């Protein structure tokens, strides 16, 4: 599922940098891929949690999983931007890049969407999630079903309350020519505080599935997800859908993503057939973290090559017109990003993660590099032999 999340983000950036005819309303839905990441993160961590897990082991695994590749993904575009002619002030750029590396970028409104690698804001949110996870999990793992349902409903309500309040405070407009004056809105959309409800929803759903909750079928969950997606596509001409800052797609699809994750997990546990277990899908999922971190770094120079004289800010404040001429550029960016992702996963991300995990905890389960140890889950009727461990 990670591959679909990161590919959606890629399409949303194609929508801005290399827009194609008749795809704006569709590709813009891809920005919800980040929300899918956050829900998946909460789900996977809660699924793999055990009461015996120590904070040191947990944070060590999170560091091994996230930080080495993040450092490289920030360093490379920072180096290019700092040495480019007419680039931003080096001291300011280095400061923002440093905030990304130490995982605090999303706490500073003026830096969230700036820097050499804008997508790194989400890693600051992940770091905050990791910080609150052990304490939250110890409180939630024995919570009653009613409390879990209340948590999900409250989280969805908070997401909508924030979004609607922003629509009143900052009436949607066709284009945002500058982020000046939008600082509070940017913070309430991209900060860890505003995104933690999605993480908590993922945790609550994982706990319910661990207890044997049978969600709807995968087909039903998928059809349910199509309801908000199709509705938002039909509303693509509305002003609140015209700029990422105002788009309500993340809020609208969050509960439906959670339902789909639960349905897929239950099918996996019961041994149902799934193309997501195909070798190619597993491989794309393994590359997805690198793909997410490098896709904007690749897309931007390709887009500049297609639009000489454009700066990164120009694509947002002075959108280029959709053109079929960009199809080849978009495919080229996709191919390069896939190649870069495969390279970094094979030679940097995976080897370093395994090495760091082994040093922190040399037991076979931790040193394997394939994810966190499985939680002690209740048996699943019908096919207990097919209980699976999800890679964190």
From TrEMBL:
One Pfam match: Acyl_transf_3
Domain (Acyltransferase): residue spans on this chain = 1-346
* Molecular functions per Gene Ontology: acyltransferase activity
What are the alphabetically sorted keywords of the record? Answer: Acyltransferase, Membrane, Transferase, Transmembrane, Transmembrane helix
- Residue intervals passing through the bilayer: 35-52, 64-83, 89-114, 148-170, 182-209, 216-236, 242-265, 286-306, 326-348
tRNA-binding among keywords: no
The EC class name is transferase
Q: What is the recorded name of this protein?
A: Acyltransferase family protein
The record lists the organism as Streptomyces vulcanius
């Amino acid at each position: 599922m990670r591959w679909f999340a990161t590919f959606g983000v890629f399409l949303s950036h194609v929508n801005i940098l290399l827009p194609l005819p008749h795809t704006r309303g569709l590709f813009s839905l891809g920005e919800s891929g980040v929300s899918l990441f956050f829900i998946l993160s909460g789900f996977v961590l809660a699924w793999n949690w055990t009461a015996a897990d120590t904070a040191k082991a947990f944070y060590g695994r999170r560091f091994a999983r996230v930080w080495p590749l993040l450092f490289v993904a920030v360093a490379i575009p920072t180096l290019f931007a700092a040495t480019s002619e007419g680039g931003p002030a080096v001291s300011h750029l280095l400061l923002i890049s440093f905030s990304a590396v130490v995982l605090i970028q999303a706490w500073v409104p003026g830096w969230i969407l700036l820097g050499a690698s804008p997508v790194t804001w989400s890693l600051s949110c992940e770091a905050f999630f990791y910080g609150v996870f052990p304490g939250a999990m110890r409180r939630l793992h024995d919570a009653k079903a009613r409390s879990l349902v209340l948590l999900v409903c409250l989280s969805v309500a908070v997401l909508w309350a924030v979004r609607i309040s922003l629509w009143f405070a900052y009436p949607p407009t066709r284009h945002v020519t500058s982020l000046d004056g939008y600082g509070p809105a940017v913070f309430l959309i991209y900060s860890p505080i505003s995104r933690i409800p999605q993480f908590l929803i993922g945790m609550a759903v994982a706990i319910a599935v661990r207890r044997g909750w049978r969600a709807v079928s995968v087909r039903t969950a998928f059809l349910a997800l199509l309801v908000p997606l199709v509705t938002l596509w039909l509303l693509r001409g509305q002003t609140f859908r015209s700029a990422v800052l105002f788009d309500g797609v993340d809020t609208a699809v969050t509960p439906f993503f959670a339902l789909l994750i639960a349905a897929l997990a239950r099918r996996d546990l019961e041994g149902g057939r799934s193309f997501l277990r195909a070798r190619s899908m597993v491989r794309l999922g393994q590359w997805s973290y690198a793909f997410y971190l490098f896709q904007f770094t690749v897309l931007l120079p390709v887009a500049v090559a297609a639009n000489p004289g454009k700066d990164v800010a120009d694509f947002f404040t002075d959108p280029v017109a959709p053109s079929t001429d960009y199809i080849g550029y978009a495919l080229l960016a996709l191919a390069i990003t896939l190649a870069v992702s495969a390279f970094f996963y094979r030679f940097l991300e995976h080897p370093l993660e395994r090495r760091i995990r082994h040093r922190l905890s040399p037991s076979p389960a931790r040193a394997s590099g394939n994810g966190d140890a499985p939680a002690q889950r209740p048996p699943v009727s019908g096919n207990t032999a097919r209980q699976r461990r999800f890679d964190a």
